[in-house]
Amino acid sequence: MEFEYDVVIIGGAFSGAATALMLKRKRPKARVLVIEKTAEFDRKVGESTTEVSSCYMTRILGLTHYLGHHQLAKQGLRLWFSNRPDQSFDDCVEVGSRYQSRLPGFQVDRAKLDLHMLELAVEAGCDLWRPAKVMKCELNGGDGQTVNAVVNLSQRSIACRWIVDATGRAAMLARKLGHFRQNEEHPINAVWARFRDVKQWDSYEWRERFPEYANRVHTSREWATNHLFGRGWWVWIIPLQGGDVSAGIVYDNRIFKLPEGPSLGQRLHAHILSNPVGHEIFSQARVIEGDVHALSMLPYHSEKVCDQGWATVGDAAGFIDPLYSPGLDFCSYTSYYVADLLARSLAGEEVADQIRYYNQQYPITYRFWFESLYKNKYYYMGDADLMSAALLLDVSSYYLSLVRTTYRDPEHEFLNLPFGGPGGRFAARMMKFYNRRLVALAKRRWATGYYGRRNSGWRELYDGFVPDARVWKQIWRGLRRWWKCELINLTLMFSARAVVSVTQPSPTAPTETCEV
Questions:
Q1: Residue 182: in which H helix or E strand, if any?
Q2: What is the mean pLDDT of the chain?
Q3: Mapping DSSP to helix (H, G, I), strand (E, B) and coil, where does residue 97 land?
């Protein structure tokens, strides 16, 4: 078969464009075609980078100048908790950094970022069909692949050596080949929109109204990813360049139902206003019409992510949860790994080992990432004690295991998917253990009426996270908060037993089991 292209990448957003760009840098003579179905990119769920994805964008892709001029610098995570709708703003619990973030992070408008990445890929020498719709693709392994597409109302058919699926949630190849799996253990939905006229977190008005609030933090709350939390749900509030604000809710439908309303945008806005922090920020805000989105059953993955002649990257391989913004981390690891695999193959190297590693390690990475950070987390995220302990331990573990190594040698580390080897498995076991304990503590607190009782009157302001030995300070802080919750759990357990011994309920009375 005569090949018109070496690689055809289906999907021109971040993952597809990054794969194309890195492949051209590693193999400048490679003939690469990017097929993008949309004339304009839309917004994605969650629009914030992490330290790892920021490392990939700045150190590997070289986007420092672009990000600094066209996106907003991010000042870490900030968590807010309350326990009643009429609670005063300055009585709500705040958890976050006191100072500026030590490592770069960005609040990104994904539509703008995706377009910039695609333009870079074209400048590097990639061909682009846009808008174009792939109608059919035939996979024949080492004998070559065929792609049929409609471009400008005309049918085109091309032959290539490799196909890369970067179609995002469409997961074209995973569905076509029967590898697509919904993560039914984590039934979360999302609704999000853009708002205008959102109040400023650091305004003069707020300094006048809440002087103690203003003086306690020496960085800008405005540029943080602010999160509101409740049992079974969380809301993100992300500023975008130009003044718009992205806000959305993610909720576990086993625990929480979004209240009914005339429209999705009004339902989201009403829920935000029912929270005392949200009411202060969004009381005068307006939903931008036509910019409201919703997705159900967010998490999924592909059981097989590549074979001879094809590979998947980014969201086409899987997605877990927008909390902590891991999506762009997965995009970073998978796009870099697949670009390297393709460059080696086009150079004539045997890549059977690289294909085997990607197929074996990606499901492990996905599973461990899910179980250690997200499984049943929505049961405790509305309790400030429990969630603040989780934040400190989760982010500290992230810094120790991933951030530290990627900044030390990014070209090497982005070829190794997370949670690999004995060290990665040990870290996953430890994280899964404390996550399970926090879930158990939350269930007892809910059963005894203690859940969220301490969601008022205090702030957890830490110095920030750094990828060196100083992060142990935050680990010990998280451990102490966790252990304090364990002591409270013992008190609740013995109190419940004392009540049971006094009241002596009938054998037929319904009971709820709580893990000790």
A1: strand 180-182
A2: 92
A3: strand
